[in-house]
């Protein structure tokens, strides 16, 4: 179990991988450090002398050989280290690690391999978060076996199901019944699926605020999106309206969008949600609450209602001549529904699959905290943390020694390098809160992967819903972690500007 930190036979092996990992890590950092000071120095850092090469021990275990092989491959032997040390040492790193689809790969190759090993084993687990990782991984692998036609077909079916779940829209259904229509119900339904973008406005967490702002889209992108979605879904239903009606509906949607995208240049600033609520027929409070953890709805609301603001730009259009309420009132229900539904479906486009996915990468990016917990559990016991920390110290020490003894660096460069390495801060480990047993699993209860027949697309949408819930819990300070993959790229980062080996890089986002 997670709460047990005693070393088992299995852990000893991973403890070894950890050591190798840390050594590798520090090695990379050293190279970085070297480059950084070399770059900041005006004089050429190398003297034209040959490098002394010392062989200390030879590695024999499979793990070590694998890693050694990797390091070996990262070198670019065609480059003279005195010309360009970085290129010589790791010039081929990108070639071996860069998958243009996932930036993740370039940074966390080693962590990824450990996580992949875990995912491939697929041992039964009582942990919600581990099971979620396995579920997503399996759905991804299943999807990779399908051809594009079949995947597109599945995604179109899910799309149609979602349309019906939220309440349908006349552009997709001839028998749409206007008396069933309720804009608040529909928007709450979309918000319940964790969507940030609701067409008429969107949600973003900025610093200490939940901000409601405009949800912009270019006319051309809207037109393309409409065409694609209609083409995908209308083939699957016998209830479609006739072509003329669809044409008129599209025109109305485009016209409404034009109004909603009109600039507002002379009114700016932000107001409190409660101030706005008096002037608008949308039930904003209900819509916002729909994005919360159902188990903690009132608690979250109590904590964040005073931190929810609306940008005035989201309310006033056409330089204050119109506002959101007058636009809603002057549009037909038919057009409002069509617009909302289409914007919802366009917001899901990002979850669609194109080509083969890197399944481990997807798991880490979509379930970063689960991945981190797994990694912490299997590869970071407390003893290891100390070992890792000691090892970094050792390696830093020997790096300083190496610099001091080197004959190929100028004296000033040497001194700078040593200063820099000695000042390097290290942060090894993971968020301490992860140590409390069950902390993460308790928050995974709101992720619903109970239907084994879910498609990969549906699984990704459910995980997005779950992540919105988590992010609101975090914003309300009920949940200590930010659902962000930077925790996992963790342990592999050196910040050149901060001279800090840290838990995370700030380059990654959801
Ligand atoms: C895709 O797979 C399905 C089912 O396996 C098959 O019927 C279909 O011919 C394939 N399509 C293409 C373009 O390969
Ligand atoms: C629309 O729904 C209402 C109640 O939900 C029903 O009374 C009415 O007959 C329906 N109209 C049509 C055309 O189906
Ligand atoms: C739009 O729908 C609402 C709620 O169902 C209804 O009260 C209103 O009369 C409808 N508007 C129009 C123009 O039909
Ligand atoms: C509609 O989809 C089919 C494949 O399902 C595709 O061949 C066709 O080009 C699409 N049409 C448009 C207008 O996108
Ligand atoms: C929110 O603000 C109102 C007045 O602006 C205040 O009375 C209330 O105590 C605040 N609530 C919280 C939870 O801070
Ligand atoms: C904004 O500018 C428009 C003209 O461009 C003007 O009619 C309107 O009164 C202005 N609104 C405010 C609040 O200044
Ligand atoms: C989980 O999802 C299934 C459908 O996929 C649904 O039937 C079930 O009610 C959901 N459970 C919860 C607790 O929301
Ligand atoms: C999943 O699909 C299988 C085969 O199509 C079906 O027998 C089973 O009832 C489905 N399970 C659920 C939970 O829908």
From TrEMBL:
GO biological process, one term: protein processing
InterPro entries: MetalloPept_cat_dom_sf (IPR024079), Peptidase_M13 (IPR000718), Peptidase_M13_dom_2 (IPR042089), Peptidase_M13_N (IPR008753)
This protein's UniProt keywords: Membrane, Transmembrane, Transmembrane helix
Protein's organism: Caenorhabditis remanei (Caenorhabditis vulgaris)
Annotated PROSITE patterns: NEPRILYSIN
Peptidase M13 N-terminal domain: residues covered: 81-431
Full protein name: Peptidase M13 N-terminal domain-containing protein
Transmembrane feature ranges: 20-38
A GO cellular component annotation in the UniProt record: plasma membrane
Sequence similarity: Belongs to the peptidase M13 family.
GO molecular function: metalloendopeptidase activity
């Amino acid at each position: 179990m997670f709460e047990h930190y005693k070393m088992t036979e299995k852990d000893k092996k991973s403890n070894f991988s950890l050591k190798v990992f840390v050594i590798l890590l520090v090695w990379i950092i050293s190279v970085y450090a070297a480059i950084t000071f070399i770059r900041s120095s005006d004089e050429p850092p190398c003297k034209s002398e040959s490098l002394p090469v010392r062989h200390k021990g030879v590695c024999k275990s499979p793990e070590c050989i694998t890693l050694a092989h990797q390091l070996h491959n990262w070198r670019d032997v065609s480059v003279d280290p005195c010309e360009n040390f970085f290129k010589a040492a790791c010039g081929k790193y990108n070639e071996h690690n860069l998958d243009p689809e996932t930036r993740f790969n370039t940074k966390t190759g080693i962590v990824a391999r450990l996580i992949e090993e875990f995912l491939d084993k697929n041992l039964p687990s009582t942990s919600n978060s581990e099971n979620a990782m396995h579920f997503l991984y399996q759905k991804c692998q299943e999807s990779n076996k399908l051809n594009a036609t079949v995947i597109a077909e599945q995604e179109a079916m899910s799309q149609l199901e979602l349309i019906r779940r939220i309440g349908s829209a006349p552009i997709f259904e001839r028998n749409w019944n206007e008396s069933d229509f309720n804009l608040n119900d529909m928007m709450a339904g979309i918000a319940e699926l964790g969507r940030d973008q609701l067409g008429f406005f969107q949600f973003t967490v900025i610093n200490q605020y939940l901000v409601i702002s405009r949800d912009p889209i270019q006319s051309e992108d809207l037109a393309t999106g409409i065409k694609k979605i209609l083409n995908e879904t209308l083939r699957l239903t016998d209830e479609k309206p006739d072509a003329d009606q669809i044409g008129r509906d599209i025109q109305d949607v485009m016209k409404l969008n034009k109004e909603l995208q009109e600039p507002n240049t002379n009114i700016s600033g932000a107001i409190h949600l409660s101030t706005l609520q008096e002037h608008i027929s949308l039930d904003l409070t209900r819509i916002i609450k729909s994005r919360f953890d159902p188990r903690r709805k009132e608690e979250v609301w109590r904590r964040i209602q005073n931190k929810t603001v609306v940008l005035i730009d989201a309310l006033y259009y056409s330089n204050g001549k119109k506002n959101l309420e007058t636009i809603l009132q002057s549009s037909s229900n038919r057009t409002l529904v069509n617009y909302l539904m289409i914007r919802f479906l366009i917001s899901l486009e990002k979850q669609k699959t194109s080509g083969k996915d890197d399944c481990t990468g997807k798991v880490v990016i979509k379930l970063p905290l689960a991945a981190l917990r797994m990694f912490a559990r299997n590869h970071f016991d407390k003893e290891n943390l100390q070992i890792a920390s000691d090892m970094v110290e050792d390696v830093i020490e020997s790096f300083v020694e190496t610099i001091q003894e080197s004959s190929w660096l100028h004296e000033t460069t040497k001194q700078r390098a040593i200063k820099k390495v000695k000042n390097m801060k290290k942060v090894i480990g993971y968020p301490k809160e992860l140590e409390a047993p069950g902390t993460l699993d308790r928050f995974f209860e709101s992720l619903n992967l109970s239907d084994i027949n879910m498609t990969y697309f549906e699984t990704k949408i459910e995980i997005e819903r779950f992540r919105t819930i988590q992010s609101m819990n975090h914003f309300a300070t009920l949940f200590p972690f930010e659902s962000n993959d930077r925790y996992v790229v963790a342990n592999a980062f050196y910040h050149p500007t901060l001279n800090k080996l840290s838990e995370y890089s700030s380059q990654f986002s959801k």
